[in-house]
Predict the structure.
Amino acid sequence: MLDLMVAGKTTTIKILTTILRPSKGNAEVLDLNILKDHKEIRKRIAYLPQGFEINRNLTPLESIKWNLVLRGFSLSDAKLQAKKWIELMNLWSCRNRTGWTLSGGQRRKVTVAMVLATEADVIFLDEPSAGLDVEARHITWRVIRKTVEMGVTIILTTHNMKEAETIADVVILINKGETVIEDEPQRLINSLPNRYKVIVRKNCLTDISSSQAIDLGDRIILYVKSYRKVKGILSNLNDLTGVISVEKVGLEDAYLHFIYKGGNRDA
Amino acid sequence: MRKKFRQILGMATLSGKWIQRQPLWLFQGFIFTLGFAVTLFAWGRNLALKNLVVAYFITGSWGLGLNIIAQGIGWDRVYYFYDFYVASPVSLPIYFIGNVLGTLPFLLINLVPAMLIAMLIGMDISFLPLLLLLSIVSVMIGAFLSLSVILRLKNPTNISAITNPMYTFTTILPPIYYPLSLFPSMWREVALVIPTVSLMELGRVAAHIPTGCDPSLSFISLLLWLILSAVLVIKKLKWGLE
């Protein structure tokens, strides 16, 4: 799920996880009604809330193991499962250190492992990679994809477009609590009217009137349909060192396009 | 049934691990309770210690409910553990019982010195079952009362700043460590409105220590507190679909 800052993704997740009651309407998870069958739903889901922190008095191994016991796992199964996910999340070297001595990234990875280790039918992750460095993010993405391959459905919210583009099978864009569009990331990108974007310093430009653009202060993003038009823009620049980047459009551009209905946001 | 037992064990371990990891809290508690006992013995000899044995049962369990358990649940809500548990197979009774059991070791701070003192002064321990029953009531009213306040805070950023004064007000100021009979007769019944005073009065009855009021009044006060605090907390402590 991708959205603006206050578009309602956490509220949506809280309704689907049966924490909040919808003010109107209804929803189903695993073909079960959230109002009537919430007890059954809770047996089959797991949820990582946004901003969730580990209990720092526990080690990563204890956090994962005892949360599995809390869900009904036997002690031996919980221990085996905890070890497996500690290894998958690359936390083995710090498995017996209390949360007080772990870095922020390590603690975040433990929270993700606590939820994924449940191997519940549906797992809700609210901003799981927030605060992670690149390496830790890649490990988390790898483990999330592995979990999906096991047959688990993961509903993940993020502001990170690269994350959604890289690991999501289906993306839902939400704005003000309403679904704007739902599709595979690549199909969303392919449906955009432009293929390329050029980021340049404004003072190098002679004319931008023919392009869709986003103003970034002293820089500007120009969207164009073809590589031929990219060449056209570059040839019109009075100084080529003013080119910041030329790249294909991505999910971030799809997000802006669909949220703002294809119109220029501010240029 | 085995699964439920395991779940309670899991919750108890998660909520009580801090006691194992930070044992100095227990040590500090022991020093305080033993030191306080010495002070009271110096001034009041065996009668003061007999009262202290009862007081340690009541204030220990009251503190467990009012401070430790309620704070734990309050912080669980602030730090999203509560949502984490709601969206899982954990039920509210398992969550609550697990929390109570997990923090029970904290009660040792009061109960161990209380039993040591009782043995040292040769107290008849036939009062123990009744005192344990009162302790359970004390935990329940304390937790319910504290939660009914904590859960109504719009910005509960410092839960302990609320529960600690509540604890001090209900244990240090009223006649817990000193007899209710010190109060003028007309004020004794008024003092029974404070649940810890009623708990103490019934505890004194059990331990054959002189009381300051008709025990039935204490019983009625506690019953009313139990019902009122349970109603107040049930209205606020929702397990999902809020």
